[in-house]
Structure formats: C-alpha cells, structure tokens
Amino acid sequence: MPYRHITQFDREVIDRMRFAGSTLQTISEEIGFSVSAISRELTRNRSANGQYSASHANALATERRGRAKEQIKRWYNLPALYEYVTSKLKQDWSPEQISGRLPLDHPNALTMRVSHESIYEWIRDQASRGIFWIHHLRFGGQRRKRYGSKDLRGRIRNRTPISERPDEANDRTECGHWECDTMEGRGKSGYLVTMTDRRSRLASVRVVRNKSAPQVRKAITQGLKSVKGPPVRTITTDNGKEFAEHETLARSLHAKTYFANPYSSWERGSNENMNGLLRQYYPKGTDFRTITPASLAHIERKLNNRPRKCLGFQTPVEVHYSPNKT
Prior knowledge:
Number of helices: 13
Low-confidence stretches: 140-153
Radius of gyration: 27 Å
C-alpha cells in the first residue's frame, strides 16, 4: 500500500470515533492506518489540556510541515550538515551520492538530511555569487552506440563467448567477476587499463605506454593481484587484440576469461561506467604521459570510496570487503 499522510478528513473521523468511545483498533480499520500511527497522532497533536480535536491537530501538523520545509531550504545553515555536504563535494561526490549516503552515516540524526535537488540548487546559487562548487561535479556527453557495424577486428584464438559466463557473474551475486577495458590518451600518448568488479564496482587502474597484448596482460595481472579479498573468478573483455594473451592471463590469476559480443559495450556496463567516471579526471585530450602511478592511485581511492546509488549508497570498498560479501 502506498504511503500517505493523515489528512484533515482522517482527523475528523478520529475525533468523532474517539468521542464515541471507539477503540484504536476500530479506528484503524475504519481509516486504514495502523494502530501505532493513530496513537502517535493522538499524542503529538493533542491540545495543552490533553484533549484531541481535529481542527487543532490539523493546525499543529500544518505548522510542523511548514517548519520542516523551511529547515530543508536552509540546510546550509546547519553546521554539521553543511560540513558534511561540502566535505563530500570536495571529494567529488555527486549531490545524489551525498543525499543517499546521509542516512547510512547518520541513521538517527534526522537533521542530517537534504535532497540532492536542494544541493544542486545551492551549488547553482553559489556559482551566481562566484563560488564554483560546480567544478567538483561530473559532466559528460552521451556515448554513441554503434548499430549494425561489421566486426573488422583481428581474431583472437580460443575465445570463450560471454554467453557461457556463469550465472554468478551475470547476476552479480558474488565478488570476483571482473570486466576490463582500455582508455586511450591524446594522440596515443599512453593508455589506462581499467578493471571493475561487477558486484562491488571496485576499480583497479594501471597506466601503460602502449596497448600491446603483453603490456595489457601484465597490467591486468598486477592490478587484480593488488586487490585483496575475494579471489578473481572471471574476467570479461571486449574483442580488442590487446587481450590476445587471455590464456596466459587466466593461468596466472587462476581465473576464466570471457569475451563480450562485438560492439556490445552494454555487456560490460560496469566497466564502461567506470571509464566514464575516470573521464572526470582525465577528459578526452589528456596526455596520459603526465599521469604518475601515485596520482592514479589517488583517483582510484577516491572512486572506490565514493558511494554508489546502485549499491544502496554504500561504497565499492564497503561492499567488496564486507564479511557478508563473497
């Protein structure tokens, strides 16, 4: 049943039935609210002399809603909430991630709540005053999908198609199933090898000078061996020739490798999304020769400790290393 507030009509029914001596259970069955909801209504909205009247109760409820809305508009005047929001913006969290994470970090503090729309509105207002929090937000255009394209890539020997990948990987029921890809720098100035766990969305990223199969295989091996926790179970890539050494990779990690269908990037959606997140820090046109391992590790930590809506606003680190996750 969808949630609804107690209305003025409901309060008039409560008022009449209480005056007639009806029990809370009887009132509950009449207006469709739980006994506990009616009990709270009678307690919160009674008058100073302890009596309940529909008109007085409705006036109190209306005043309370007005105060709550005004408080939401002025969330930035609440020091603890303001400090939380701005500190997370500085870490490049999105307003939706901040809003969704607040109930997890402050479950019992109802004043620590703000909608992502309110944060966006405040950021726009700050920009009009010359304070540019907006620079911490991610911007990116829509990716274009290719339809009906002929597969002109070189053939990779002994590929196992994604259709044979186990259900545990497809359903994201356990950690250890990874997707891998590469990102190209300006003028082929280097490449990022990106790895994303399908279940936790944990990322591991390495920079390489070229996209040769040996370099990419070595980067994936090092990147996934550096991740503690659940073992590597499967690795899914596209059909680029940089993944030609997949058999050697599988042996070194004791895992199985699978290949997505040509030009079907949605079959590696977690990795594609991660590449988009990385573009916030390394936009198209970036010279990847300027990227140091230390700076790349810093960005990796930021992304892995940023809450995700698809994870119920938990972070990839929390999901990947939770004792209840495998």
